[in-house]
Design brief:
heterodimer, A: 250 residues, Rossmann fold, four-stranded parallel sheet, 8 strands, 52% helix, 11% strand, globular, B: 490 residues, alpha/beta, six-stranded parallel sheet, 50% helix
């Protein structure tokens, strides 16, 4: 089984720790992930802002970079959803514009093999107890694209429940968006900030030491808001919790 | 808020003002969360909700695909039942038809059933211009009208008001419109409702002309359907001598059997009821019962253009239930007025730019009034993929492209004011399509990381006003992998 890590541009640039945690976790589970260096960004910022034509080269790049792998695993619900939901749409629109089936084929090549990390763990590897140890009080925020576009359901929570030492506390209003939304966070900054403040208030109210998600783009906003409010609650990616053991804390 | 949507600022500015209004925020949060939770419970009772939802989408899609056929069928059935059908290509034509019909009766006042179509075309203002006074009889629409205000919600137009405000509006304004509010009116819901009842009753009994919209138009019999909670609609469609219904062409359903699906989907999604208290249906005219003259005005006003768009047309499935508004975190904070049209919330953000186009500043900003969280799509009883349409319309704004405007295929130019963003997106794509350039950029950012300011200038300020900037790590993942081959654990 050849597994590629799609680390995502945000993790690559701002949260390399998350990518390293995925590599470490998968290795512990017997999977040697590869990192094709030709990868860059799934194109979500361009696509979701309306620049579909600017997204097309990135679709081609994604398909080429990950050709030949059985699975493309990514620690981001949002980027996985971009590939699975929107790549076929980009292909279909290009075809409708008379530009052939090339992008549709590129989409078809990667869509069935691209999985968010918790899907790969639970559905492919069939594990929920990954042997992790994380002795902290943690609350979980289900990020929107993982929750609603991928339908991750209880997978992340089942993985968290199996972590030794972890005290999982319920987050009120968990399914409400944190307000990030990519360029929404600057285009509609006031509403985005208001949503972020409410999310931060709910998180702080749980008494958790860390807030866990499967998306560091949302954490950029949640963590940035918590920090501005002077909260000590740490944003942490699920991969880092799952990579942690009694010998090594991420 | 004065009674017009004209000249509204773009969504971000209007939303920022609304977000800063503590009382409005409190009213909206309380109201939307209450309805949201009730809806979830009402929908949860049905084990076949997913199948109903799929049927609701499929019936509408089929009807829209053959809309010409069903509209003609409806016209024949209405005519055969003694009604008169009028076709209005746009708001101006619809207003002209209705105004003429009212004038022909010689009346100077009409009573109105709550109707989105007549809000959309600005009928009340058009009637006022012709010297006809239109009285809104839905409780919330009455509050809005008395307050010289605009509706901010499809189902609950006065959702932005609390009962203290309503008491004030009734006390100060009812006398200008008819029977004054009772002396010593309190803000108890029962007393407020009784004041409205007394005020409206004399209008129902006096009015010779009623104006309504319709939730559905059943093509096989030419039957119009209005669902409501208060009974004012029943008064308006039965008491007056003349009834004029203004109905969007997408409201048609082929048969009563199809209607059954929506009579299950709509009340649970909108008011969280198993069945709405009043379902009124009328077919043409009936001797010695109800209106003696019935006119149906079928309204296009951009709907055919939307229908020509393969992605955007799903918005025409909408049954105006408001579930998407009630669950939307952006609507909850921005309020309905920020959307600058009769259709607020997620559905408004995809409907208005299709009906009105994307040339005005507010219309071009609407597709961006969403974090794309997808909660709206999840609750939509006719499965409109609102995020998909939002992104599709964002494309239309910044890229331009093919669209149908007033029945003509045309190629839209990109909207103005996106030059800097377009350049940035292009530059980002250029760098992201060259991992070597991306790596170089990451290294510069890493090397200069101690110098990064905590507060950014220009567009970055929108981020750092309320959020910290993340620290840039000393080494990107890409560089770590190249250095270690992924072999180094912590």
């Amino acid at each position: 089984m050849r597994v590629a890590l799609f680390v995502t541009c945000i993790n690559d640039t701002l949260y390399p720790r998350t990518g390293r945690a995925v590599v470490s976790l998968l290795r512990r589970l017997g999977v040697e992930a590869e990192f094709p260096e030709a990868q860059s960004c799934c194109g979500q910022p361009q696509f979701n802002t309306g620049y579909r034509w600017e997204t097309e080269p990135l679709v081609r790049r994604f398909a080429a970079a990950f050709a030949g792998f059985d699975y493309v695993v990514t620690p981001s619900g949002s980027c996985a959803a971009m590939v699975r939901d929107n790549y076929p749409r980009i292909g279909a629109k290009a075809a409708a514009e008379g530009r052939g089936e090339e992008l549709t084929r590129a989409a078809e090549a990667v869509v069935p093999r691209t999985l968010e990390l918790t899907e790969f763990l639970v559905d492919v590897l069939g594990v929920t107890d990954v042997g992790a140890y994380y002795p902290h009080r943690v609350t979980y925020h289900p990020t929107c694209h993982g929750l609603r576009m991928l339908g991750l359901g209880t997978k992340p929570k089942r993985l968290l429940d199996a972590v030794a030492g972890l005290d999982l506390v319920e987050l009120p209003g968990a399914q409400e968006c944190c307000g990030f939304g990519g360029t929404f966070s600057v285009k509609n900054a006031a509403v985005s900030a208001a949503m972020g403040a409410d999310k931060a208030r709910h998180i702080m109210g749980t008494g958790a030491q860390a807030v866990c998600t499967v998306d560091n783009s949302c954490q950029l906003h949640i963590g940035g808001t918590l920090a501005r409010l002077g909260s000590p609650v740490r944003p942490v990616h699920l991969a880092e919790i799952l990579a942690s053991t009694d010998k090594e804390q991420w | 808020m004065s009674g017009t949507y004209l000249g509204m600022p773009a969504f971000p500015e209007a939303a920022a003002t609304a977000t800063a209004n503590g009382r409005l925020r409190a009213n909206l949060t309380h109201a939307t969360h209450t309805i949201r939770d009730k809806r979830a419970a009402a929908v949860g009772e049905l084990t076949d909700w997913a199948a109903l939802r799929a049927a609701g989408a499929a019936v509408k899609d089929r009807t829209l695909r053959h809309l010409d056929h069903y509209l003609t069928q409806a016209e024949e059935a209405v005519t055969a039942a003694g009604g008169t059908v009028h076709w209005a290509a746009d708001a101006r034509e619809a207003n002209r038809i209705v105004t003429r019909l009212v004038r022909e009766t010689g009346e100077r006042e009409v009573v109105k059933v709550k109707s989105m179509a007549t809000q959309e075309i600005g009928l009340n203002a058009a009637l006022a211009g012709a010297g006809v006074r239109a009285y809104e009889t839905d409780l919330a629409e009455l509050i809005v009208q008395l307050g010289d205000d605009l509706p901010s919600h499809i189902l609950v137009p006065a959702i932005h008001r609390n009962r203290q405000e309503i008491r004030e509006i009734f006390t100060e304004r009812m006398a200008d419109w008819g029977r004054p509010a009772p002396v010593g009116l309190s803000d108890r819901p029962g007393e407020l409702a009784e004041a409205a009842r007394l005020h409206l009753r004399e209008k129902f009994l006096r009015a010779k002309v009623g104006i309504s919209g319709a939730n559905f138009l059943v093509a096989e019999t030419g039957t119009l359907v209005v669902v409501e909670s208060e009974g004012n609609g029943r008064m308006c469609v039965t008491l007056p001598e003349t009834l004029i219904s203004v109905v969007g062409i997408e409201k048609v359903v082929p048969t009563w059997r199809d209607l059954e699906v929506y009579l299950q989907l709509l009340p649970r999604s909108s008011t969280a009821e198993r069945m709405n208290p009043y379902t009124s249906t009328w077919t043409g005219t009936t001797d010695s019962d109800g209106p003696r003259a019935f006119h149906l005005v079928l309204l296009d006003n951009g709907r055919t253009d939307a229908l020509a768009d393969t992605v955007g047309r799903q918005a025409l499935r909408c049954i105006r239930c408001s579930a998407c508004l009630n669950v939307c975190p952006v609507y909850e904070r921005a309020g309905g007025h920020a959307y600058g049209s009769a259709y607020p919330g997620p559905i408004g953000a995809i409907l208005t730019p299709q009906l009105r186009g994307t040339t005005s500043e507010v219309d071009a900003s609407l597709p961006y009034a969403s974090s794309l969280c997808g909660a709206c799509y999840e609750v939509c009883p006719v499965a409109i993929d609102i995020p998909e349409v939002l992104v599709h319309l964002r494309e239309r704004v910044v890229q331009g492209g093919p669209a149908t405007v007033r029945g003509q295929r045309t190629r839209l130019k990109p909207a103005k004011g996106h030059a800097a963003e377009r350049a940035a997106m292009r530059a980002a794509r250029w760098a992201l399509d060259r991992p070597g350039v991306l790596r170089a950029g990451q290294r510069v950012a890493a090397r200069t990381r101690r110098l990064h300011p905590g507060r950014l200038p220009g567009p970055g300020r929108a981020w750092t006003d309320t959020r910290e900037v993340p620290a840039v790590p000393a080494e990107s993942f890409r560089d770590w992998w190249r250095r270690t081959g992924g072999r180094e654990d912590r």
